[in-house]
Each structure stands twice: as structure tokens, then as C-alpha cells.
């Protein structure tokens, strides 16, 4: 027995004698985690969050969240003697006078961008593989909550330095609040402690950014992970993997070493980016004043789609009985995002309603085998992408020598035309891929070897695929659409006909598939 | 459908293939050395970090081909930190992948639904609890509880009332009054018509007394842009034309869409463009919106000159400046 084995045993004994948790710990140390690169996406989000907590704490030691006006007398000469808020001055102080301060600021900002990107890509993985299905609907909703909070937290974070760029972002947020019917101007005055910009907003969002939201994140992430733990991870289909088992590696030591190691890699890469890639150089923007602006004002990427929607909105405003309703702000700024996020949160329930499927699912879908879901996902992404492109229309116009008007009109039309087109194309692609799978199982793999038959005909030799591969391509379920009769056995129309009609149609659209190969098909082909 | 037909059989988990390090002690020793080297690289990274912190001055710059002139202190601090973290991770993962057992393990799942008996017990307990509380029967308690819970939600709203003052008519008025001089921003110098050449633009604010502090919230409403055209270039009605002075026209600089500063003036086309959402305003037609999301022109400030020849406001703005709000009447 080596020393480390003896220590491990002693520790296990020590803990059990004080908690009686031997059984529980044994079970959990042996817990099996399936291995796949796409399961690391959520981990990247988690690790970025830890990096954000660490680097953020560092920044709070010197950041002064105050809009009190000061005269700058720091190391950065171009701004010497300028009036600015204490928040902006202390951000300059961190950047130029604290050793490692700029590095930490850049690590913090990069980690925020990576955090949001990892959440989005993780969400895409979960969506396209159907991992949100029963019993994981709660975790899906928590995930959407984390995404939403992440957007808010990121926005508040980059608003704190009170530079010209972020101040402009706050101005836009204020305009959205102010546009709310009836209560808008009241809410704006409460939030800002008076007329914009006032001196209250930065200190207030600071508390929200460093205390309230991180607390909410910690709580939600804890529940998110506990549910993953308790429900056990989903796994990709394959030989030997079923709905009833988990195939993978034990937590201790393999998974712990890999996951722990991966944390350091994510941190290392973020630190590398912070070291070499300048981000948000606020000293170039100058302090915020509402009378000035710089061209090419861009929010961080996860806000870009929202800005793009606002940019492409037509100039609609209603004036009714001495009141103004700004549709050009409310629709792109609140109504459309509200519908998108609510729809996304409810999607697991919508799909289970469409398919009538109330069973547990632990084996993931290959995206092609759920053409409707995959197409809907690609459609939503197309929508977001066009909005995002329009959010950078000024930058794109300069880079590609186009006019802003061209890009704006492309977006205004494209946002209606391209997503449905993406849906149709994706659905067809999925069905084509299913057809290709079917061919592969039936006729085997093309070897590229041509053989001349005795009668002169050339044929390509096909090689049968392995039983493992054949299983992978045929293991999925193909369920018939719901049979929802309009009238019951006695010919009486059922209540809720319209709802049922819609449900039947959706269910039918969802069940479209190329029939998978069965053992009978294979037998039949052998006879030929 | 195909479910009733005989499906292709699951061949089961493929046989485990051993790694070289599992069978060849030499390969295992090599893997161990590689892990150790990775951990040592991490240690080297930390040493780089410490050395950079102490020895590289904060204002030392160094030229790198892709990065350009870079602050050497921050760069080496960051590179050291990156290496110290990254190689720990690489070492741990290399260790797990080459030397820790890689034999796949299978465990069984359990269905989350409890046994029927337990479920029936739970439902009975829940029902019994609800019956014992008797909310269904005691409607007085139910209603009064509903009332008090509803009211208790109001207290945080009440307590947050002092977050800010009521808007009153703050959003509707600016500091501009009849006779207020326009002064340059920055500089606070009054402006004569001849200071502006044709085609020039100036950012201005209302004049304040010596030593008076300008609040940002005032600038956020008062910022005005002066543009000088040739008088014949205007396409305005008689009233709006009378608001200009010798080809100088004044607009609120605060965008009528979302309040950004409308700062991009295109001399050729005489268009003002807001960099935030690209609302485009035609200066010759009283800042009419010709493109983008804004629904209203920029408010025009009527200007003239005082006895000393300096530009002044003829009257306050005739409409609220900045983004729309519910109480705005037009």
C-alpha cells in the first residue's frame, strides 16, 4: 500500500466516523459520467463563472462605484485634468497603476464573453439533442433563467466603468424603461434617482452586479448541478447504451482529474486572452457625458441581437389621447425578446404536448432524427443571427464597403424570409441524412473500388458496415403521430376541436421521417 | 409502424481496447514523465509571473509583430499566469487519459417515479394535510389570508418609493429660455454667426453663470447642435425658416429615438446620423426622419442674435427633447 492510498483510506474513515456518509459517498465517488466533448460546454460556463467571481473580487478592491465628479490626476496623461466620475477614474487607476489590474480587468471581461458563449452553445447542444425532455424540464427552465440573468449581469458589468461607450448603453436602457406605457417615466426616475444620468445609477447597479445577481447565479447553478447529479447525465446513443444505464467513467479519480484539469485549462486560456487580446480599452473612449458619443458604438456580443432588432425597427409611434406609445422601442426591445424567451422556456412542454410523449428520456437524439425540432432550432438561430448582423451594420458597412441602408433593408426583409427558409432547408437536410443512413445500413459503405464484371459492366464494391454502426443508425424510435379524432365513436364532435386539429397537425409534422431499416429489410435484401 | 417489426439488434458495448501504457511499462513511464514535464511548465509559469511582477516596470513597452506595442508588464504577468494555470490542467488531463483506468463502467438508472404504494401514500398525506388545514371549508380564513398576502407584497414597493423623485415635468423642459446664449461645448465661449463657416457644425450648451456647475442630467437635455448651410439650401416652412439665423439652424443633439447624441453630420448630403441605431435626419427639412427607427424629427431650437451679435435662443424648445415617454402629447 502506498502512502497516498493510506491517506485516502484514512480520510474516508475520518469523514465517515463523523457523518456516517460511507454508503452515500461510496455511491457518489463511483458515479459514472458519460464522456463526450459536447458535455464540456456547460463545464466551460461553470468554470468561467468561477473565474468571474475570482477576478471580479480582485477588481472590487480598487473600484469606486460612485458617480461623484472628480478631476483626474492619474498616470494616464491624455485624460489629465479632465472631469469624470469616480467610477471611471478608479477604473483608470486599476488599469494603469495597479500591477496586474489591467490583466484582471481583461480576464474578467473575456471570462464574461466566454461565459455567455458557453451558455449559448451548451443550450444549443441540449436543445438539438433533446436533452431537455422529461425528466429534465426543470433544468431547462433554470438554464434559460441563467442565460437571461447572464445577459443582464453582463450588461450591468460593462456599464460600471462609466465610460462614453457604456454610458451610451445605459442611455438606451433608460429609453427602453421610459418607453413603457403608463409607468415608464416613473420607473426611469426611480431607477436613476431622478433625470438621466443622475448620480445614483452606477452605485445601485454595482450592488446588483456584485451581490444580488451573483447570489442568484450561485443558487440557480447549485440547483442546476444537483439536478444533473441526481438525474444522472444523458448519454449519446450507441452499442450497449440504453435508456436504463449510464456508460462512462467513475467520478473518482478519472472524471475529477479531467474536470479539475479542464478548469485550469479554461482559466489558462482566459488568462492568455487577457494577456494578449485588448478588450474594452475604456481610456480610449473617455468619460461619459450625455452630449457626446463615438461612432461605431457596439454592445457586447450577447446584447448585439437586441440592438440589431431595435435598429431594424420601422419608425412606429402612436399618439393616443395625449399619450405616446413607442412601438419602435417596445416591439424590438421588449415584446419580441419576451416572446422568444418565453417560447424557449416553454419548449419542452410544447414538444411533449405535440408528440404526446410523457416518458422519461436519457438517450440523446441525433439531431437528424428529430427534423422538426432541429429545423425549429436552426430557424431561431437564423433569426438571432440576422438580428446580430444588423446590430453590427455600421461596422459591416465600413468593412465591406456597403451602405448601412443596404444592410438594414437586407435585415428588415431577411428577418421575415430567411428563418422560415432555414426551417424548410434544415428539415429537408435532416430527412436526406436519414435517407443516407438508410442507404448505408441497407447497402453498406462505398469502398471506391471499381470492379469490372465478366460482361463488361463496372460496379462499385460496397462493404457492409459494422453491427455497431448499424445499431447506431437504427436505434432511434420512430413514433406515429397522435391520432386525434375530431368526433368520438358516436359521431359527436369532441370539445376543443380547433386545439386538437392544431395538435394533430403539429404532431404529424413532428413525426415525419424516413422509415429506418429493420432486420426484415436486411433479410429481404440478402435474398436478392 | 416499424416498432412491431423486428429491429436490428444492439450488439452491446464493444470490447475494450487497451492503451499502450496499460500493457507496456515503458510507455507508462514515458507518460508519467510527460505529466511531470507539464506540471513543471506550470511551475515555470508561476515563476515568470512573480518575476514580471517584481522586475518589469509598469511603463515598459515591448514590440510584438501581431500585438504591436504592448505593455510588457501586463503581457508577461498574463503569460506567466496563463502558463501556470494551463499546464496544470494539461498535466491532470494527460494523467487521467494515459494512466488512470480507462475501462468504461456501466451503472443502472432508476426511474424517478416512486413505487405506486409510496405515491398513493404521498397523495393521501397531501390530501389529509389539505383537509386538516381546512382552507376549503373556512372561507373566511382563505379570503383574509389572500388579502394579507396580496398586501404584504406592496410593502417592498412602498419602501422603494424614495429611490427617486416623481418625474413631474422634468422630461418636458430644458434649460433653454428666450435670450439664453449658446456657448461652445467644450470651452463655454459665446458664438457669433460669423464664427461658423458654411458647412460647419458646432456643439453648444446654454450659457451658465461663472462658476455654476453643469449637471450631466442637464447636458442630457440641453445639448444643441448648430449647423450652418447656405440659406437657399433650406426647405422649410416660413415659421421654421424664421427659427434659423443667416443659414444657421439649431437642433437638439439628443436623439428622438433613444437619447444617444446625434453626432455624425454628413456635409455632402446634409444628413445627421445617430451612431446608435442609424436614425437619419435631413437637416434641410427640419431634421425630418428619412431613415432608421426614430419616429420623430429632432426638435428645432429657434435662434437669433442679441444686441452684441451673439447667438441666443429665441424661445424655449416647443416640444420635449429626447426619447418618447408616455406623458408626451405629440
UniProtKB/TrEMBL annotation, chain A:
Keywords: Cell membrane, Iron, Membrane, Metal-binding, Translocase, Transmembrane, Transmembrane helix, Transport. InterPro entries: Cyt_b/b6_N (IPR005797), Cytb/b6-like_sf (IPR027387), Di-haem_cyt_TM (IPR016174). It is found in: Cell membrane. It is a multi-pass membrane protein. Residues 11-237 form the Cytochrome b/b6 N-terminal region profile domain. The chain crosses the membrane at residues 44-63, 107-128, 140-160, 172-196, 208-230, 251-279, 325-350, 370-389, 409-426. One of its GO terms (biological process) is respiratory electron transport chain. Pfam families: Cytochrom_B_N_2. GO terms for molecular function: electron transfer activity; metal ion binding; oxidoreductase activity. One of its GO terms (cellular component) is plasma membrane. This is Unannotated protein.
TrEMBL record, chain B:
GO terms for molecular function: 2 iron, 2 sulfur cluster binding; metal ion binding; oxidoreductase activity. InterPro entries: QcrA_N, Rieske_2Fe-2S, Rieske_2Fe-2S_sf, Rieske_Fe-S_prot. It is found in: Cell membrane. The chain crosses the membrane at residues 35-56, 76-96. PANTHER family: CYTOCHROME B-C1 COMPLEX SUBUNIT RIESKE, MITOCHONDRIAL. One of its GO terms (cellular component) is plasma membrane. SUPFAM superfamilies: ISP domain. Keywords: 2Fe-2S, Cell membrane, Disulfide bond, Electron transport, Iron, Iron-sulfur, Membrane, Metal-binding, Oxidoreductase, Respiratory chain, Transmembrane, Transmembrane helix, Transport. Residues 221-312 form the Rieske domain. The keyword Transmembrane applies. This is Rieske iron-sulfur protein. The keyword Cell membrane applies. The lineage of its organism: unclassified sequences, metagenomes, ecological metagenomes. It comes from freshwater metagenome. It is a multi-pass membrane protein.
Amino acid at each position: 500500500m502506498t502512502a497516498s492510498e493510506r491517506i485516502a483510506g484514512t480520510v474516508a474513515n475520518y469523514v465517515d466516523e463523523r457523518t456516517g456518509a460511507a454508503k452515500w459517498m461510496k455511491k457518489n465517488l463511483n458515479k459514472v459520467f458519460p464522456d463526450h466533448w459536447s458535455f464540456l460546454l456547460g463545464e466551460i460556463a461553470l468554470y468561467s463563472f468561477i473565474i468571474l467571481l475570482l477576478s471580479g473580487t480582485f477588481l472590487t478592491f480598487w473600484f469606486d462605484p460612485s458617480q461623484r465628479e472628480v478631476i483626474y490626476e492619474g498616470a494616464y496623461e491624455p485624460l489629465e485634468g479632465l472631469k469624470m466620475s469616480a467610477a471611471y477614474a478608479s477604473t483608470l487607476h486599476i488599469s494603469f497603476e495597479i500591477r496586474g489590474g489591467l490583466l484582471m480587468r481583461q480576464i474578467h471581461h473575456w471570462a464574461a464573453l466566454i461565459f455567455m458563449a458557453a451558455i449559448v452553445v451548451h443550450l444549443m447542444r441540449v436543445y438539438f439533442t433533446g436533452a431537455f425532455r422529461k425528466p429534465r424540464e426543470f433544468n431547462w427552465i433554470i438554464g434559460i433563467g441563467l442565460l437571461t440573468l447572464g445577459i443582464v449581469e453582463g450588461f450591468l458589468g460593462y456599464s460600471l466603468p462609466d465610460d462614453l461607450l457604456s454610458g451610451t448603453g445605459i442611455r438606451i436602457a433608460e429609453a427602453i424603461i421610459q418607453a413603457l406605457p403608463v409607468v415608464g417615466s416613473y420607473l426611469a426616475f426611480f431607477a436613476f434617482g431622478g433625470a438621466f444620468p443622475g448620480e445614483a445609477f452606477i452605485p445601485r447597479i454595482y450592488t446588483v452586479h456584485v451581490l444580488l445577481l451573483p447570489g442568484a447565479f450561485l443558487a440557480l447553478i447549485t440547483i442546476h448541478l444537483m439536478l444533473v447529479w441526481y438525474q444522472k447525465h444523458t448519454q449519446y446513443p450507441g452499442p450497449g447504451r440504453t435508456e436504463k444505464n449510464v456508460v462512462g467513467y467513475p467520478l473518482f479519480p478519472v472524471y475529477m482529474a479531467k474536470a479539475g484539469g479542464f478548469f485550469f485549462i479554461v482559466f489558462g486560456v482566459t488568462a492568455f486572452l487577457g494577456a494578449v487580446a485588448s478588450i474594452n480599452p475604456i481610456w480610449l473612449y473617455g468619460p461619459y457625458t450625455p452630449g457626446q458619443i463615438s461612432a461605431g458604438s457596439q454592445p457586447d456580443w450577447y446584447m448585439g441581437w437586441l440592438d440589431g432588432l431595435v435598429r431594424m425597427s420601422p419608425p412606429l409611434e402612436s399618439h393616443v389621447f395625449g399619450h405616446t406609445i413607442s412601438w419602435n422601442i417596445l416591439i424590438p426591445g421588449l415584446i419580441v425578446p419576451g416572446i422568444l424567451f418565453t417560447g424557449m422556456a416553454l419548449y419542452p412542454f410544447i414538444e411533449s404536448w405535440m408528440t404526446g410523449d410523457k416518458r422519461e428520456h436519457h438517450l440523446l437524439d441525433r439531431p437528424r432524427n428529430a427534423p422538426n425540432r432541429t429545423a425549429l432550432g436552426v430557424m431561431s438561430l437564423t433569426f438571432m443571427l440576422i438580428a446580430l448582423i444588423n446590430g453590427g451594420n455600421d461596422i459591416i458597412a465600413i468593412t465591406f464597403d456597403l451602405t448601412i441602408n443596404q444592410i438594414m433593408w437586407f435585415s428588415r426583409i431577411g428577418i421575415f424570409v430567411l428563418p422560415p427558409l432555414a426551417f424548410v432547408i434544415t428539415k429537408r437536410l435532416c430527412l436526406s441524412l436519414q435517407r443516407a443512413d438508410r442507404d448505408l445500413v441497407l447497402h453498406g459503405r462505398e469502398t471506391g473500388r471499381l470492379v469490372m464484371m465478366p460482361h463488361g459492366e463496372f460496379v462499385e464494391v460496397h462493404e457492409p458496415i459494422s453491427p455497431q454502426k448499424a445499431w447506431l443508425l437504427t436505434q432511434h424510435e420512430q413514433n406515429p403521430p397522435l391520432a386525434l379524432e375530431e368526433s368520438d365513436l358516436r359521431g359527436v364532435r369532441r370539445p376543443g376541436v380547433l386545439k386538437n386539429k392544431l395538435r394533430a397537425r403539429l404532431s404529424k409534422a413532428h413525426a415525419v421521417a424516413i422509415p429506418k431499416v429493420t432486420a426484415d429489410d436486411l433479410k429481404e435484401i440478402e435474398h436478392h | 409502424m416499424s416498432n412491431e417489426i423486428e429491429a436490428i439488434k444492439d450488439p452491446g458495448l464493444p470490447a475494450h481496447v487497451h492503451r499502450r501504457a496499460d500493457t507496456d511499462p515503458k510507455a507508462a513511464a514515458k507518460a508519467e514523465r510527460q505529466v511531470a514535464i507539464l506540471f513543471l511548465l506550470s511551475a515555470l509559469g508561476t515563476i515568470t509571473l512573480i518575476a514580471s511582477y517584481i522586475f518589469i516596470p509598469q511603463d515598459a513597452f515591448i514590440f510584438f509583430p501581431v500585438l504591436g506595442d504592448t505593455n510588457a508588464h501586463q503581457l508577461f504577468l498574463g503569460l506567466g499566469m496563463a502558463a501556470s494555470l494551463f499546464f496544470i490542467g494539461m498535466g491532470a488531463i494527460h494523467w487521467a487519459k494515459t494512466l488512470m483506468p480507462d475501462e468504461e463502467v456501466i451503472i443502472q438508472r432508476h426511474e424517478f417515479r416512486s413505487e405506486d404504494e409510496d405515491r398513493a401514500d404521498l397523495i393521501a398525506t397531501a390530501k389529509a394535510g389539505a383537509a386538516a388545514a381546512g382552507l376549503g371549508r373556512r372561507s373566511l380564513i382563505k379570503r383574509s389570508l389572500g388579502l394579507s398576502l396580496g398586501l404584504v407584497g406592496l410593502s417592498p414597493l412602498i419602501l422603494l418609493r424614495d429611490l427617486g423623485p416623481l418625474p413631474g415635468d422634468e422630461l418636458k423642459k430644458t434649460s433653454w429660455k428666450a435670450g439664453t446664449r449658446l456657448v461652445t461645448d467644450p470651452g463655454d465661449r459665446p458664438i457669433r454667426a460669423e464664427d461658423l463657416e458654411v458647412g460647419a457644425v458646432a456643439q453648444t450648451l446654454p450659457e451658465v453663470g461663472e462658476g455654476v456647475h453643469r449637471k450631466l442630467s442637464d447636458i442630457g437635455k440641453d445639448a444643441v447642435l448648430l449647423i450652418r448651410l447656405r440659406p437657399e439650401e433650406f426647405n422649410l416652412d416660413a415659421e421654421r425658416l424664421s427659427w434659423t439665423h443667416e443659414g444657421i439652424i439649431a437642433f437638439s443633439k439628443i436623439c428622438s429615438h433613444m437619447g444617444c447624441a446625434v453626432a455624425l453630420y454628413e456635409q455632402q448630403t446634409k444628413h445627421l446620423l445617430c451612431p446608435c441605431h442609424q436614425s437619419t435626419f435631413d437637416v434641410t427639412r427640419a431634421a425630418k426622419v428619412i431613415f432608421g427607427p426614430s419616429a420623430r424629427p429632432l426638435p428645432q431650437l429657434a435662434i437669433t442674435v442679441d444686441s452684441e451679435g451673439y447667438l441666443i435662443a429665441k424661445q424655449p424648445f416647443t416640444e420635449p427633447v429626447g426619447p418618447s415617454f408616455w406623458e408626451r402629447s405629440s
